[in-house]
Amino acid sequence: MRSLGTLIAAAMFLLLMTLAITPATAEPLPEPNHIFINVANDAGVKYDLDGAVFGTEGNNDTYYIKADGGGLNELCLTADPATPTGQITVSDQQSGTFYVGSVGGKGYFDDVIMAVAVNGTIPDDFAVHIKSSGYTWTPSDSPSNYTYVTDVVDEVFTKEDFIYGPQVQRPCPPRKGIQPFVYGQNQSDTANTFQFMFVDLYAGNLLDGAYSGLDDEGKGAVKVEYTFENLETTAAFNVYGWCLYAGQGQGISWTNDLIDQARGGSNGYSVIGIPPVLTSISVSPETAEVAQWDGVQFTATALEQRGREMKNVTFAWSSSDETVGTVNEDGYFMALSPGTTEITAANGTVSGTASVTVTAPSVPAMAPMSQNRHIFIDVANDAGVKYNLDGAVYGVWNNNTYYMKADGGGLNALHITADPATPTGQVTTSGNQSGTFYVSDTGGRGFNDDMVLLLAVNGSVPDDFAVHIKSSGYTWTPNPVRNQPPTNYTYVEGLVDETFTKEDFIYGPQTWKPGPGAIGPVGLPLYEGQDVGDAGNTFSLMFIDLNAGTLKDGRFAGLDDDGRGAVKVEYSFENLETFAAFNGYGWCLAANQGQGISWTNQVAGIGASGYSVVGIPRFLTSIALEPAGATVQARSGVQLTAHAIDQNGNEMPAPLLAWSSSDEAVGTVDAHGYFSALSAGTTTVTAANGTVNGTATLRVVPLPDSGDDDWALPSATKGLDAGASRTLTYHSGPISTVIVTVAKKTDDLKVTIRPVDTLPVEGPSGVVYRALEADLSHADDSSIKEAVFTFSVPLSWLKEQELTTQDVALMRYHDGRWTALPTEFVEETDAEAHYRAVSPGFSYFAITAMKGGASVQTDAGSATTETPAPAVTDAPATVEETTAPATTAPTQKSPVPWFLSIAAIGALFLLKRD
Questions:
Q1: Domain BIG2 spans what residues (predicted)?
Q2: What is the per-residue pLDDT for 22?
Q3: Which residues pair with 581 in a beta bridge?
Q4: Does residue 89 fall inside a structural domain?
Q5: Using an 8 Å Cβ cutoff, are 267 and 223 in contact?
Q6: Which residue intervals of 818-889 are DSSP H helices?
Q7: Cα–Cα dist 258/178, whole Å
Q8: What is the residue range of 108's domain?
Q9: Which terminus of the chain has fewer Cβ atoms in its 10 Å neighbourhood, N or C?
Q10: Burial class of 261 by CB neighbour count within 10 A (0 to 12, 13 to 18, 19+)
Q11: Contact, 597 vs 452, CB < 8 A?
Q12: Contact 728, 738 (CB under 8 A)
């Protein structure tokens, strides 16, 4: 019959286990004894025998904790083998050594298993290296043939190996009470839990003096060496003895004592870890460049003294200059104005910083507006919007935009007028490139806190387009109370005084303006009589904040300005070639319609008003050639550039030009203005468009007479777009033309062909007819996609070499070797054979005798490579592949779960029965 103390201890163990259970990967052990345990060793248990004895399905790679007796006197943990009964050791060293000795009457244990427990949360990068050394033998009723083995276990264990817990008590013989993990532990504190694993030490221990020949340093004890990495709390070592033959039977029945019940006293070994201390904070990105009104997310990482990241640390974010930008509690930075600021993430006295440079906002890519209202609009003013408030109400944060709300009618109150005496306005179309108009208000509310001007230009906007806008009017602090009129307003002249250019048009091309109406992809007309459905009649749009509000004449006192409370707008266009339309928009902070823009001028029907300007189309008045005069050597050339001049004396895009030379015997000019000098004399080159033309006078001088082979022929061109081709012509030597195709946009390109009597490298194999150098200038090899050479060889030379017309190839020297280029025989004339060859670039070339080197059609991919020059050798790389055998990591078995509540009830039932 079980003793009352045993049953009480078992019941308490179960109740404490139940309280300590938390959802985790690891699971608590259900009882202090009569349980199977798994070990964390990759190789599993040393003696896989207990499952067959105590289980139901044979050996199962576990040990059985039987522990029916006392079991606290014979197994001890000691830091000194000279004291085999051990002691309580608490160390702050993260690596060390201790011993597991036998001091009982039996005098040995066939195997020792160690429990490693860690208090609290185990870090993800935790590791412990365990080495064990000791005696090993074949288990019997008494060891007789034992051998000492060094490092019988030498393994690293990690967080994933801790499969038991969290719990506050460890397995043990329960007769004298349940054992804790560390000496002095408060076992009633169910929040102070441990997770643990079992490590098979693969060695037994022998009682010193009872067995001969124990010459090891442990005197028969098992030596354990440990090294922790990233232990932050407390780790405890406890040990268990396993025997095959013992009075208590097979299995584990012994452990070290931590509750002062053993004859020799309590003994155990624990290690105090190194708690993480915040020492630095890293802010990422370290530097950032962001455009005004954009944002960037910063992240902070807390680092402890070993450089490891600390989790769940909060940061206080700040910006050193909040006029440049602000940062919220989550580290999101908002750029407000150009400049530099330092972002700080702090926790107590520890902080990290990052630097942010805010640049002027980039010009948005031009695109049509998505819909007619419920959208944000950007203004073209360098200073941005006057009232940066709408983003916070309708968006996420202030974003330097206005919100086009326009939920009501909004077409009756706002007008554009050329005469302030007529505040209801009119439709005005002017041919004047500068002028004045007014934006007025006649609505019931009688005011708008701010006015925004829309400028729309029809068709293509010239690159040199500009419009100067000057606005004058009243300004005040908007009242946040709905419909409350301003009382302290001031008239300011030149509130806006700014020039806007083509780059400021960020909306369009489109046919409509935003405003009231059903939400959709099309809005209101831009001017009277416009068909918004005419997709071919598009406009580019920009918005300009006039920085002034409107006041209704007669409603407000003291309106002595010439606009009578309206906003005065003065405009001046440069290079407006088509048609421009102005429209106005009203913004209010607190109106019946809500905050935002809800009003614009009506351009059609009753009450229509608007202001349009008809531009002056530019037309060609003269052409200037550059150079206007030059001296050119025969067999060379010069590139001429034509500048088209409009009626204002400004250069305009050049129209299609017809090029001609007055004396083509002296030189010719191609359709791109490249002049090729042929013979001595003077000629006039003309570029014409209709009746307008420009000329250049070119003088051609002869080449010096220095022999047939003393020539160097340059040929040049310019203005090539990616993929374009241009033919360069040569009037002496074997090369007649080079058709160059460029891989990218190339402004200038020149190729000079010159003879080479002695190559600076070893020549190709075979007889060489002519060696040449093709020199590329004003561009680099990356600009060239391909070059097609046309060349000729005298038939007499072919006859001398006993060659056919197909026994010729053009070879190129590149990367230390000669390569035969794809060469095609084109035709035979009276004295010459003509060929075409394709090259990927320029270098040294050789027209060479090669059997079958030329064909009627050569695949560019089938070029033949000859042996490289001796100075350059290319060793082929050999990669030898091997296939590693697949390995499967051992998987620890999970303990068989027991239902704690049922076991607890059963224990209480036994108590009651006893």
A1: 277-357, 619-699
A2: 39
A3: 456, 612
A4: yes
A5: no
A6: none
A7: 10
A8: 4-272
A9: N
A10: middle
A11: yes
A12: yes
Indicate the SS3 state at residue 50. Answer: helix
Cβ proximity of 438 and 470 under 8 Å? no
**692-701/567-574 β-pairing:** unpaired
User: Taking the CA of residue 184 as centre, how many other CA atoms within 13 Å lie in the half-sphere pointing to its CB?
Assistant: 5
Residue (of 857, 790, 868, 785) closest to 822 by Cα position = 857
Q: How far apart are CA 114 and CA 199, in angstroms?
A: 5
8-state DSSP, 394: H
Quick check: is 753 in a domain? yes
Give Dmax over CA atoms of the chain in angstroms: 135
Could you tell me if 38 and 74 lie in one domain?
yes
Beta strands in 305-349 (DSSP E): 309-310, 316-319, 325-327, 332-335, 339-347
Q: Cis bond leading into 627, ω under 30°?
A: yes
Low-confidence ranges of the chain (pLDDT < 70): 1-25, 56, 363, 396, 398, 704-716, 856-914
Task: Taking each helix axis as running N to C, give the angle between helix 4-20 and helix 900-913, from 0 to 180 degrees, rounded to the nearest 10.
Answer: 160
- The amino acid occupying position 373 is R
Q: Is 98 in contact with 88 (CB distance < 8 Å)?
A: no
pLDDT at 98: 98
Rounded Cα distance between 206 and 137, Å, is: 11
Give the domain CATH number at 348: 2.60.40.1080
Phi and psi (nearest 5°) for 652?
Answer: -125, 165
The C-alpha torsion from 415 through 419 and 421 to 423, rounded to 10°, is 0
Look at residues 336, 312, 316 and name the one whose alpha carbon lies nearest to residue 325.
Answer: 336
Last residue of a domain, one of 571, 596, 614: 614
Number of residues that this document lists for the chain: 914
Residues 652 and 906: their CA atoms lie apart, in Å, by 102
Q: Domain for residue 886, yes or no? A: no
Cis bond leading into 890, ω under 30°? no
Interacting residues of 639 by C-beta distance below 8 A, sequence separation 6+:
673, 674, 675, 716, 717, 718, 748
Query: Do the beta carbons of residue 250 and residue 49 sit within 8 Å?
Result: yes
Shared domain for 806 and 727, answered yes or no, is yes
Q: What is the CA radius of gyration of the chain?
A: 47
- Pair (389, 430) in one structural domain: yes
pTM: 0.50
Contact 418, 426 (CB under 8 A): yes
Clarify whether residues 421 and 555 are in a common domain: yes
Q: How many whole angstroms separate alpha carbon 330 and alpha carbon 336?
A: 18
Q: Is residue 848 part of a domain?
A: yes
Q: Do 399 and 497 lie in a common domain?
A: yes
